[in-house]
């Protein structure tokens, strides 16, 4: 474990604070003066259609995204600060494990980087339901299994902040349910989880929701509060109403049309889980 002293956190209830964040890529803003807070010890869902800026925001939070303006602080320190490295676990959309190593070898490699024993690797492999495949080469796994192998590596060292970019994609309903149950167990144990998805059925599983579209924050509240604000019990419909209300308030074209060249022109509708 790291022996580096930690700076006192200015707000013990806040894990992540994003202020006026701007990320510009390819001559356009991917995030537009984005501001939000993520509370500690809860599962916060980052929901939005493909191309809305979810991955860019997560990259900024873990400190691997070049930003144009604004600030991102994690536990009171600038995102990406050296003292945050062992406190943060990050799961990317694409599996970030070595295909020519077994699941166990990958997890043990990451455990070694954390200064953790081999038993830590076995623990996280079991937690993601891959104990039976621990000796299998990652390159021979299914897509869903590779994602879980990556998740196991992200959980090594019991990080305080766990950033998960669409962790349930490709998982069957039973495994997806098991993963969400595990996410809440981690939060109950004090960890903070930020979980992205474009599948609306997962929104109700979160304690807090951040709805993002075209690089802007549409809603930041609990699922129940989002339902009340939109005047419907259906979260999918609630999000659509909030998006349309924002478009009308801004004078944007309605009925799902967007200005040419705007971020998020494609895949603008949030999806329901088909399973």
TrEMBL record:
InterPro entries per UniProt: AAA+_ATPase, ABC_transporter-like_ATP-bd, ABC_transporter-like_CS, P-loop_NTPase
Stretches assigned to the ABC transporter domain: 16-239
Ranges that cross the membrane: none
CDD domains per UniProt: ABC_DR_subfamily_A
A Pfam family annotated for this UniProt entry: ABC_tran
Basic and acidic residues: compositionally biased ranges: 264-275
GO molecular function (one): ATP binding
Region Disordered: start-end pairs: 246-275
Domain of life: Bacteria
UniProt keyword annotation of Nucleotide-binding present: yes
Keywords (A to Z) from UniProt: ATP-binding, Nucleotide-binding
Record's protein name: ABC transporter ATP-binding protein
Origin species: Plantactinospora siamensis
């Amino acid at each position: 474990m790291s022996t580096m002293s930690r700076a006192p956190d200015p707000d013990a209830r806040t894990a992540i604070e994003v202020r006026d964040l701007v990320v510009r890529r390819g001559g356009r803003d991917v995030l537009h003066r984005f501001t939000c807070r993520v509370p500690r010890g809860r599962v916060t869902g980052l929901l939005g259609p493909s191309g809305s800026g979810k991955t860019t925001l997560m990259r900024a939070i873990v400190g691997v995204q070049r930003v144009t303006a604004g600030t991102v602080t994690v536990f009171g320190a600038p995102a990406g600060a050296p003292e945050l490295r062992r406190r943060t676990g990050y799961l990317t959309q694409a599996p970030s494990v070595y295909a020519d190593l077994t699941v166990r070898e990958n997890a043990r490699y990451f455990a070694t980087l954390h200064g953790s024993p081999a038993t830590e690797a076995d623990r996280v492999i079991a937690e993601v339901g891959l104990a039976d495949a621990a000796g299998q080469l990652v390159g021979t796994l299914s897509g869903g299994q590779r994602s879980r192998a990556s998740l196991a590596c992200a959980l090594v060292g019991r990080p305080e902040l766990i950033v998960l970019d669409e962790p349930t994609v490709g998982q069957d309903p039973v495994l997806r349910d098991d993963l969400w149950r595990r996410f809440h167990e981690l939060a109950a144990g004090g960890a903070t989880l930020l979980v992205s998805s474009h599948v609306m059925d997962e929104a109700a599983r979160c304690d807090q929701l951040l709805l993002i579209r075209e690089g802007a924050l549409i809603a930041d509240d609990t699922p129940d509060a989002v339902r009340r604000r939109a005047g419907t019990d259906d979260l999918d419909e609630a999000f659509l109403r909030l998006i349309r209300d924002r478009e009308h308030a801004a004078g944007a074209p309605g009925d799902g049309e967007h200005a040419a060249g705007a971020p998020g022109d494609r895949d603008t509708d949030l999806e329901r889980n088909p399973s």
